Amino acid sequence: MTLRFLGAAGTVTGSKFLLNTGPSSWLVDCGLFQGLKAMREKNWSGLEFDVADLTGVLLTHAHIDHSGYIPVLAKSGYRGPVYATDATVDLCKILLPDSGYLQEKDADFANRHGFSRHSPAEPLYTRKDAVDALKLFRSISFAKQTTLETGLTARFLPAGHILGASIIELGLPNKQRIVFSGDLGRLQSDTMLSPTLIDHADYLIIESTYGDRKHQHVDIEVELAAVICETAARGGTIIVPAFAVGRTQSLLHHIEKLKRRGAIPDLPIFLDSPMAINASELFCKHLDAHRLSDRECRDACGIATYVRTTEDSKALTTNRVPKIIISASGMATGGRVVHHIKNFASDPRNAILFTGFQAAGTRGRSIVDGAISVKIHGQNVPIRASVHNIDALSAHADADEILAWLRNFRAPPRRTFIVHGEPNASAALQARLSTELGWNCVIPSLGEEVSLT
Ligand SMILES: [Zn+2]
Predict the structure, then answer these.
(1) Which pLDDT score is estimated for 35?
(2) 269 CA distance to ligand 1 centroid (A)?
(3) Strands 152-158 and 146-149
(4) What is the pLDDT of residue 146?
(5) What's the mean pLDDT when you consider all of the chain?
(6) How far apart are the CA of 311 and the centre of ligand 1, in A?
(7) Which residues lie below 8 Å from residue 56, measured CB to CB, with a gap of 6+?
(8) How far apart (Å, rounded) are the C-alpha atoms in residues 276 and 299?
(9) What is the rounded distance in angstroms from the CA atom of residue 280 to the CA atom of residue 316?
């Protein structure tokens, strides 16, 4: 039995782990590489295996760095199943076609500006390819044991993180157990479920996004109220680059509570992201996949004015009344929030409020790191607005929380592989696992294959 690390090894994106059991071959996650150009180019290097040999795909959650390469598989002739939880399947119906649309837009942009290596530039996949790929998806309920084939079982256990996110536990014919952590959520979140505690694995593949960091132990609502009140007092607008799935809904929930108890001024709130609007509706549909009640869900979604059209989004810029604009993408790499930053960042009365991890190479990371200006649409935009990052809103467990989750194992796994982290983060987690738990862990490199026997 072998495991190949085809993505999220030495980096946080492109999650792809190919497990070959002998009779069959399974891909756990099938994500896009994102972020820096050198990373994104890896999406073009072709598949490292023959799709005809692939038995199935097991998807931990809907984020594009875990799911966004599935349309490429389908386009390459893969017709097998993609197993995921109900909520993940629903989210993929929103996220994958959008990803295809963005690929088409990028190719179109490259053609118009003539900077593609390929002439004409082709999208990695189209919106239609993504819609076609959705036909391969099969829903699996949380915690239910499913037999994938003789002797091979899978359980999808809640991981917190985002709606539908799972830890995948595989039971092998030789009775051994492999656990893929997927992306682990916060141990205690007001909105999301806690990651399921696991006490045994023979082989463990653990994420390390925040392996070198601790979230600030702050009261999210106190922090949020401070930013909102200060900015409103200056007559400014608060721009919130938010991840459409999960973070937006948590934010709306906290802002609704603050508003209800009169802790913040009664500013208009706009949710300016069609994807976040659709994801919010799914939040209200999948009540078993998070902690909010039906009432809390509807209250949270009810405080914002939904901005669906581009015209209405542009109108927010011309109207200078103090307000809160929540818009995607969360790292300000694209989407409508980029236009809002371009229009609001140079005025010191305004605020930009980030809500979580900002990957290297993103505009969000530059702003959080204190850049005095950022380039948007070829123009240098000075950053004079106040900049905040409430990373307690993050959907990822921090290093202490990952350690706490691992402490629940009764014995060290035979082998532990640290993935899904920038090199410093993975190395820091490896060091802590060694000194604090006495575990000997490996950080696999991209493309490495290990034998699990
Ligand atoms: Zn994720």
Answers:
(1) 78
(2) 26
(3) antiparallel
(4) 95
(5) 93
(6) 31
(7) 24, 26, 27, 80, 81, 82, 83, 148
(8) 16
(9) 21
